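Case study.
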Amino acid sequence: MHGLALVGLRVIDFTWVGVGPLLTKYLADFGAEVIRIESRTHLDSFRFAPPFVEDTPGIERSGHFLNLNTSKSHVTLNLKHPQARELACRLIAQADVVAENFTSHVMEQWRMTYDDLRQVKPDLVMISLSMEGRTGPHREVLGFGTVLQAAAGLAYVTGWPDRPPVIPGVAYTDWTTPFFGLVALLAALDYRQRTGQGQYIDVSNLEVGVNCLETAILDYTVNGRIQMRAGNECMVGDLPGATPHGVYRCQGVNRWCAITVGNDQEWRRFCDILGHPPWTQDARFTTALRRVQHHDALNLLVETWTSQYPAEDIMDRLQAAGIAAGVVQNTADLACDPQLMHRGQSVWLDHPEVGVQRYDAPAFHLTDSPAQLRPVPTLGQHNACVFKGLLGLSDAEYEALEREGVFE
Amino acid sequence: MRLMKSPLSQALEPYRVLDLTQAIGWTCGKLLADLGADVIKIEPPGGDPDRRLGPFYHDAPHPERSLPWFAAHTNKRGITLSLDSADGQALWLALVGNADFVVESFPPGFMDQRGIGFQQASARNPRLIWTSITSFGHSGPYAHYRASDLVGMAMGGLMSVCGDVDRPPVRMRPSQAYLQAGLQATVATLLAHHYRMRRGEGQFIDVSMQHAVSWTMIPTRQYWDLNRLIIERGGTSRAFGDQLRRIIFPCQDGHVAVMGVMNAREWGPMVEWLCREGMAEDLAGASWAILAEHAGPDPLTQAAVTNEELAHVYGVLGRFFLQHTKAELAEEAQRRRIILFPVHTVRDLLEHPQLLARSFFQPLEHPELDETLCYPGAPYQLSETPWQLRRRAPLIGEHNEVIYGGELGLSRAELAVLLAAGAV
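After joint prediction, the assembly is written out as follows.
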C-alpha cells in the first residue's frame, strides 16, 4: 500500500525567499495541498536570484526559486488591496496551516497575525519563521542566513585558530531552520488531531543556530570555556583519540580526502593499506596517545601517501579495509555522486517556461509513503481554480476583482 | 531565568520512542523528547561508550559527566540492554510491542542479523515506525561505507565550501553532519507518523547522513547544474556565482559579518553613515551610487564591479569597521536597515539581549551534581505545547527497574538474573 503522508492537509503559504518555501516544499512533496500566495507588486526576491535556467534571467527561471516550489499551487493576491484580505481569510477558513516568514510587522499590517486568524479558523496551526523571533527587542531584525549563521556562533568556531573565522559558503541556518520548523509543525498537527486545539509556532533562525552549537553552550556555562576554531581536529561525537583524523591533499588540483582512523586496530589496517612505509613504525605513532601527541607530524606523513593517488582511490582503498574515508566532494561531484543518484536525489519535471529541469527530492526514504514531486506552478497558475473552485466566486465576481487589481 | 514550568501539555506526550542511536542520531531522539515524547535511551550493559565523549563536567572525565551526553539526552529515560544475548533480544521484542517509534543508527543489517530488526518488530507491532539513520543509506554503492562526522561532511559536500583557500577544507563545528542526519530523521519520523494516523500502518525509514548534508549544498550545487560553475571555499568571503563577496571583517573587538552593501537599498544608508564619521573616502561619489542603484534593492544581488573596485570598497569599509565594536556596528546597522551581524562567541550569546528577552537559556537540575546547569533552550516556541526541559539525561540503567519491573512485570529476582547474565 503506497500513499502520501500528508494527503488532506491544506496549507496557505505566504512564505518567500529560502527558509519558508523550503519548509512548505517538504509538506507539498509529501502530499499536502500547499497554496502559495504572492503578489505581482512584490515578487519573491528568489525569482531574481541567479543562477537562471540557460543563464537567462526571468521571474520563472531562477534555479533556487524553481527547486523550492515543487508540488505547490500558486495564486496571486495583492494583500495591500482592501478586498484581498477577505479572500485570504476565506481561504484560511478552509485550511489547516498558515506559514509565513516576513519581518514581524508585515502580517500585523495586514491584520493577519495568529490572534487575527484564529478568529477565522479556531483550530489553525500557524508557523512564523524569522531571523530572531516574533517577540523581543530584535523582532524586526533584517537578515540572511549567510550572515545570521555568524550571529548564531557558528562562524566563530569554524576555521583555523590562527586565522579569522571562516564563513561557510552556504547560508547554513537557512537550510536547517526549515527542518526544525517542520518538526514543530508536524508535532503541533498531531496535537491538533488528538485535541482539536490549534496553536502558534514562532521559529527564530538565531535560536535554531544556537541549538546547532550543542555542547559548546554547556562547555561555557559549566566549564567557562569559549570554544574556538580548531581546524579539523576531533571534537564532540568523535572517538576520542581518533588519529589520523583530518583532510588530506590528494592527486590533482584541489582534491582532498577526509580520513578518520578510529583506534589501534584501524591504525594497523591503515598501515597495511599503505604498505608499511618505515615512518609508520616510528615510535611517535605506535599508540593512540602518541599519535594524538604527534598528530601534526603524522598528518604531513599521511599526506605524502595520499598526494600520490586520486581522492576516490584513497576513499575506496581505505573503505575496503573498514576505515572511514570520504572525498571532499565539490558541487560537480555531488551532482553525479553514484550513491546520491542511487537514492534518487534528482527528479526531472517539466515546466511551461523552462522545460524539463532537475529538482531535488527529499533526503530520506519513507518506504510506504514516499515523496512524490509535482511540477512547479507558474505565477498565478491556479488563480481561477482556487478562487472560483475552492472559494466559489462566480465568473462575474472573479472578473470584477481581477479588474480591481485584487489579483495583482 | 524561569525556574519552574507550568504543567502544560506536551505535543508528543502519548508516544514512546526506543532510542538506539549513536552520536549520528542523537538529535532525533532529543527533538522528540523535548516535545514531550517518552524517549527511552537504550544503552549496552555498563553504559554507552559514547559517555566517554568530552568535554566533561568540570573537565573531570567520568561516564556520568559527559557534556555531549547531557546535551543530547535531555528528557530521555534510560535503560541498559544487551542486543547480543538471547534474553536481551527477547526483552527488546517485548519493548517493541509497546512502542510507537524505534530510532537506531546501526550499520545496515546489524539488527536483522540478530533477528530483531524491522521485520520481526513489525510482525509484533504493525503500527511501529522504524527510523534507521546510517552514514550513506541502506542500499547503493556506498551503503556499507563507514563515516565519521568529518567524512559525512566531506561526502555531503559542505566541507568543500568551508575553509581558507590556502589550507585544506575544514569542517563546520560542532558536528553538523550528525546534526543534519538526526534532524532530517525527525522530520521523516513525524511524516510517517501522520501517514500512520490516517492509515494505521507503520513503516521503515531510511535516512542517510550524506544525503541529509548534501541538502545544505543544493543552492550552491545549482551553480554547477545551471552554469557549470564550481563554487569553492573562500575563507572570509563567499562566492555567489562568479561574484566573490567579502563577508567577515575584523572590527575593534572581534569580527562582523556583512551581507554586502552594494545594492540600491543599503548603499545610500551605508555611505551616509561613513560620511557622518568622515570615513567615506571616495565612496560618496555619484558613480558608485549609480552602480549600486543598477544592482536593484535586494541584497541577494550586487553591483557589477571589477575585482579592483570591489577591493577598494572593502578597503574603505574595513577601515571603518575597525573603528567600532561589533555591538556598536550591529546596532547602528540595524537602525539603518543594513544587514550586518556580529560574529558572536558563546559568551556573547549568553549576554545576547534578544536571547535573554526570550528566556532562551534554560536551567536544568542535576541532583547528583547538586547543581543546576544552564542549557540552550527552545529551537521553536509553541504557544500551546511549549518545548520544555523536564529532566536531565538519564544515569546508566536509571530506569531499568521501572521499565523492566513495572512495565514488563519482571520480578527483582528475575532482573538480578538478567543483570548477572549481562542481558541488562
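Observations recorded in class. Chain A touches chain B through 161 residues (CB under 8 Å). The mean pLDDT of chain A is 95. We will return to this complex in the next lecture.
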